[in-house]
Amino acid sequence: MTFEQAVEKFDPVLGLEVHVELNTETKMFCGCPTTFGGDPNSQVCPVCLGLPGSLPVVNAKAVESAIRIGLALNCSIAPWSRFARKNYFYPDMPKNYQISQYDEPIAVNGYLDVEVDGQTYRIGIERAHMEEDTGKSLHMGGATGRIHGADYSLVDYNRAGIPLIEIVTKPITGTGAKAPEVARAYVTALRDLLRALQVSDVRMEQGSLRCDANVSLRPSPDAQFGTRTETKNVNSLRSVERAVRYEIERQADVLDGGGVIVQETRHWHEDTGKTTSGRTKEEAEDYRYFPEPDLAPVAASAEWVDQLRTTLPEPPAQRRARLQQDWGFTDLEMRDVVNAEAVELIEETIAAGATAGGAKKWWLGELARRSNDSGVALADLGIDPDGVARIETLIAEGSLNDKMARQVIDGILAGEGTADEVVASRGLVVVSDDGALTVAVQEAISANPDVADKVRGGKVAAVGALVGAVMKATRGQADAGRVRELLLETLGVQE
Ligand SMILES: [Zn+2]
Prior knowledge:
The protein is of the alpha+beta class. The protein has three domains: 3-308, no CATH class; 316-424, no CATH class; 434-490, Arc Repressor Mutant, subunit A (Orthogonal Bundle). It is 39% helix and 19% strand. It has a nine-stranded mixed beta sheet. Strands 4-3-14 form a three-stranded antiparallel beta sheet, with no helix packed on it. Strand 5 (107-116) and strand 6 (119-132) form a beta hairpin. It starts with a helix and ends in a 5-residue tail after the last helix. It binds zinc ion. Zinc ion binds at residues 27, 30, 32, 44-45, 47-48, 161. Zinc ion binds next to loops.
């Protein structure tokens, strides 16, 4: 069954659970650092290793971030919330329980508006709660990195105890054929919001933002919800959309053939674009939740919450509208900027002295191309807004042309220093000095007598070939406009 047939016949209902790792300096319940990429098991202590007798202490900064996230999602902040133990055995969880929040989360009942094709969808937020991350199992020797087929497994507890906020939506209905795009738009909007709050570095590829997608189908919008599946490991925005789309098609096929959907966890496979069956989904009672006896409840005072409310950033959608107006971009241009994740980069490039058009031209042109080719995000390419702004200034002054600017970018990306350092070390200077150009112009004319005759005979457009010859002779460093003028002058042709 195609996707179109699937959504014609069934009404999809979504539920999205997003885990975000906070960027606090220390873990949720101990003082271990949270830096990404440390040597395995180098950022651990008795608390996050779950050693007997160790006691957790709540990270105040993490609570602050949780409240700010709750407020930004239009949630009510609970005056009194509590941690609970979620009991299950898994080798990457050394205590054999995870400290989470269960029936008394810190933030409840909010919403986030997202836009798809000009239509706004209000996504209800059921809850946002605090918990700790697990460690990470690494399965060695197999071809897939999965436990199946592996020779042995290793476990790294550096991540164990890193503060997480889990944000759970209410059932998302009424999206029909737009369900996959709405899912992606929601995770995108949430990511932008979390980034604006500066509570996380929200890198899906590093796992600091993770999405589980619940999907179910029902025969019609007024029918009861169908049985849902929960797809894990969806680690890019594009995958969110693809995974939801795939699951809708798969479930429609099963239901259409008279089958039943099994409530289960499914794994998303980026390479095949499919989900496969995982474990049968546990129910809440399987986790034997009970209040965490080693931690006092979190009671955020109204004064503190009000004070945190004043620290909220301008909502990303509103900010984008304002910037679009300031920059004079069309809707389409702004959408390209947003999709390229270049809003902040362009904003900073303009602040560093570039024009809006100049900043957009480089980030969405040459740099976006390099980003696509290398698979490295624009922000991580190795050139910063100051560098782009400086290149733009040099072009505006006439000391660089576009071709040389690309060489400056090459130099900066190769680690040769700042724009000015690359210009100096590579000897990149636009030659607009007539003396130097006249020689090259004369040479180009004598080397191409046929072309010169054509131009003299009135075919002015043919001068392009001579301009090219001069540019080649000056290794691209000539001012092309001036070269053209000199050629026509020398050939005695008036335009
Ligand atoms: Zn620790």
